Amino acid sequence: MAHRASNPDSPTHAVNLRVRGDVRALIDQAAKAQGKTRSDFMIDAARRAAEESLLDQALVRVDWETYQQFLQVLDQPATGEGYDRLMAARKPWQA
């Protein structure tokens, strides 16, 4: 979902949150790094999380034949230059 610019004439509604001091300091630091107010930073982060959550709930309906083709593709072993490059890359957990 693309972020839509808010209409400055749209009414706003208060949302009150209680957070620990260390969390608030972290949010403030991140907001400052992005040149945003704490409220704007939190609203953007909450909106993104809400959109991702709803997108994760998406249901895709296909006919039986398409579903079988999809399963067939999933059952194929991964191959190709991109896959080989990914498997050869150093893993972050490897010393």
TrEMBL record:
Single GO MF descriptor: DNA binding
InterPro entries, alphabetized: Ribbon_hlx_hlx (IPR010985), TacA_1-like (IPR014795)
One protein family per Pfam: TacA1
Domain of life of the native organism: Bacteria
UniProt keyword annotations, A-Z: DNA-binding, Repressor, Toxin-antitoxin system, Transcription, Transcription regulation
GO biological process, one term: regulation of DNA-templated transcription
Family, per entry: Belongs to the TacA antitoxin family.
Name of the protein this chain belongs to: CopG family transcriptional regulator
Organism of origin: Methylomonas koyamae
